[in-house]
Amino acid sequence: MTRIDAKFAELRKAGRKAFVTYVMAGDPDYERSLEVVRGLPGAGVDIIELGLPFTDPMADGGTIQLAGQRALEAGQTLARTLELAHAFREQDDTTPIVLMGYYNPIYSRGVERFLAEAKEAGIDGLIVVDLPPEEDDELCIPAQKAGLNFIRLATPTTDDKRLPKVLTNTSGFVYYVSITGITGSAAAEAGDVGPEVARIKAATDLPVIVGFGIRTPEAAERIASVADGAVVGSAIVDRIGKGEPTEKVLEFVAGLAEGAHRG
Amino acid sequence: MPEDIINSFMNGPDEKGRFGDFGGRFVSETLMPLILELEEQYEHAKTDQSFWDEMNDLWTNYVGRPSPLYYAERLTKHLGGAKIYLKRDELNHTGAHKINNVLGQIILARRMGKTRIIAETGAGQHGVATATVCAKFGLKCVVYMGAHDVERQAPNVFRMKLLGAEVVPVTSGRGTLKDAMNDALRDWVTNVRDTFYCIGTVAGPHPYPAMVRDFQAIIGKEAREQMMAAEGRLPDTLIAAIGGGSNAMGLFYPFLDDKDVRIIGVEAGGKGVNAKMEHCASLTGGRPGVLHGNRTYLLQDDDGQILEGYSISAGLDYPGIGPEHSWLHDTKRAEYVAITDVEALKAFQLCCELEGIIPALEPSHALAHVMKIAPELPADHLICMNLCGRGDKDIFTVAKALDVNMGPSD
Asked: Has the keyword Lyase been applied to this entry (chain B) (predicted)?
C-alpha cells in the first residue's frame, strides 16, 4: 500500500473528498518553494503534485510554463526536485507526493536510476503527461515494479473504447482532465464533469480526481461534489508568480481546501 | 552494414511508430485518440488510388512537378571534380519543397472533414505553403511562428496574411520554432474536433514522420528517374540540408536500399559545433531524448532541458531532427555533417554568381558541403543535391550578414 492508497482509505473513512494541489518545484527558487510545499498539508492539502520543471511543457498554459522557467533560471534540476521532496519527507511521512512533468528529464537521467532515486526521496507516484498507454514500457511498467504509482490522465477525448486501455496499468488514482485544453484554461462545469466521472468510475475501482480550470473554493466544491476530489494548480502558481508571501499563498490554499472538502 | 541484420531500410516505422528506438507516440492522452484516427485515415488513403490521383493532379497542375534535375555545369567546372546535379525543388509553387507534403495533409484533412488547419513555421516556407493550399480549398488557416522568426522573415509573414492566414507570433518560451510547435500542439489539444495539425517536417508523433516522408518521397522518386534518363545510372552521392529533415528524407528514402548510393545529410553548424552550443546540429552535437511526440536526437543540457539552437537559417533552427534520420545515423546508412553560417553564406553567393540561382539559406548548407567534397571526387562521380528552396526570403538576412545596407527599411 502506497501513501496514496493509504490517504484515500483515510479519506473514504472520514467521508471526505480529496484536495490536491500542484506547485512547481523550485518556483520561484528552491527555498521559497520548499517553504510553500511544507505548508500545504497544514493548509488542508491531501495530496501534493510536485511539478518537475521542463523547458517545453506542451500540455500546460502560460502560468505553468512561466513557473518552470522561473525554477530553471533559479537552478532547479531533477536532482534538486528530488532533494526538495526528500527535505519535505523528513518532516511529513504521510502526505503523498506525486511528481508531475514530462518524460525527457527522466529519460535523460535514466529510468532505473531515476526510479531508485525517486523512491529514496519519498515520491509516491508519477504523472508523466507525454507517456500515453502506448508507451507503457518506457516508464509506467518499471515504475509500478519499483513500487511507485503511475497515475494516468483520462480526458474528454478518451472514449469508451479507449478507456480500458487508459485504466490498465493505472494505479493510485485516475486524473480526469475536465476540458480539452491546457492547464489554466477556462473552467469546467460540474454538470459536464459529473457524467464523465461516473463513466470512468463504472470502469474502475480507483478514485477519480478532477483537474484543469478550477480556480476558486466554489469551483473546487462543485467539482469535488461530483468526483473523489479536485486539483488546483495554475491559480496557486499564479500567486506564487506574483510574488505573494508564503503565508498569503497558503491562506488561499486553505480556502480552496475548505471548498473541496465541502464537496 | 551486414546484410543479415536488416533486409531493407524502407520498412520503417514498425506498428509502434518506431524506427529502431526512435520515433514513437509521446503525446498527452487528449491527443492520443486524434493521432490514432489520423494514422487510420492515412493508412487507408495510402492505398486508395483516388487519393494519389488527386495528389498527382495537383502536383502536376498546381505545384508544377516534376521539378527539373539540372546539371550545374559552371559549378561543376568551378569545383573541378564530381558532376553536380541540382534537384530544383525551389521551382515549386511557393518556392520550396514544403508544398509537396502540405498538399497531402490537406487532402487528408478534407477527407476527415476537418475545417480548420493549424501549422507551425520557422522560416515561413511551411506556413506559406499551408496558407496557400488552405486558400485554394477555402479552409481556415492559423500559423504559429516564433516572434523572433516573424521579425527575420517579414516577407513570408506578409505572404501568409495575403493568403488569408492568421499568423500568431509566439512569445512563450524563447519565441522560436520549437515554441511555435508547442503552441500549435496547445491549440490542437484545445480544438480537437474541427482542427487538423499540418506538421511541416518528418518529426512529431507517429504517423507524422512516416506520412510526411511519404509525401516528400516524390522528390527522390523523380530524381531517380531523371538521373537514369540523364546518365543511365543512379547518382553516387545524395546531399540535402536538414533542419527537421523533410526535404532530405524525401530525397533519400527511395534510395535507402541502393547500397552504393552514398547519403549525406547536412545540419546547420551555426557558429561552430562545440560546447557553446551555438548551432542546430542535433545529430553531430546532441543526444537522444523525447520532445514533440517522438524520441530522437536533441540539443539538450545534462538535465534533459531542451536548448535553443542557433543558425543563420530560420528553417534549420530547430533543436531536434526527424526520428528516421536518427535511425539512419545510428545504423550508419546515412552520414551527417555540419556546415557553419559562414560556409553556407559563401555557397549562397557562389550559386548566385555561377548558376544564376538564388538559393535559400537552408540548401546553401548542402551546397557548402558539395563544395567541400566535389573537388576531391572524380569527374564521373555523380552528385545529386536537393536545392529545396529559393532564396528570395533570405536576401535581407544575407545583406545584413554581408554588411550591405538595403535602404530605408533597414
From this structure: yes
The CATH-assigned architecture of domain A3-262 is Alpha-Beta Barrel (3.20)
| pLDDT for B6 | 59
Q: Is residue B324 part of a domain?
A: yes
pLDDT at A9: 97
Task: Supply A98's cell numbers.
Answer: 506525486
State whether residue A134 is helix, strand or coil: helix
Q: Is residue B289 part of a domain?
A: yes
- Segments of chain B with pLDDT less than 50: 1-2, 4, 410
CA distance B310 to chain A (A): 16
Looking at the structure of chain B, the number of domains it has is 2
Residue with cell 534535375: B69
The whole-number pLDDT of residue B361 equals 96
Q: Is B237 among the domain residues?
A: yes
Backbone angles phi, psi at B378, to 5 degrees: -70, 160
Q: Write down which residue in B172, B190, B211 finishes a domain.
A: B211
In tens, the pLDDT along A100-117 reads 999 999 999 999 999 999
Contact status, residue B241 vs residue B266, Cβ threshold 8 Å: yes
User: Could you say which of A61, A135, A158 has the minimum Cβ distance to residue B33?
Assistant: A158
Instruction: Please judge whether B173 and A69 are an interchain contact, meaning their C-beta atoms are less than 8 angstroms apart.
Output: yes
Q: What range does the domain containing B294 cover? A: 66-95+217-401
Count of pairs with CB atoms under 8 A, one residue in A, one in B: 117
pLDDT at A30 over 70: yes
Of A5, A27, A46, A60, catalytic = A60
- The domain that holds B249 is classified in CATH as 3.40.50.1100
Confidence of residue A185 (pLDDT cuts 50, 70, 90): confident
Q: Is B381 exposed, middle or buried (0-12, 13-18, 19+ CB in 10 A)?
A: middle
Residue with cell 485516475: A174
Put simply, the chain A residues between 162 and 201 with a CB less than 8 A from any chain B CB are: 162, 166, 177, 180-182, 185
Give pTM, 2 decimals: 0.96
A47-58 residue pLDDT tens: 999 999 999 999
Chain B residue set in contact with A, beta carbons under 8 Å = 16, 24-34, 172-173, 178-179, 182, 185-186, 189-192, 289-293, 295, 298, 300, 302-306
Per-residue CA distances from A121 to A78, A97, B115 (Å): 12, 10, 49
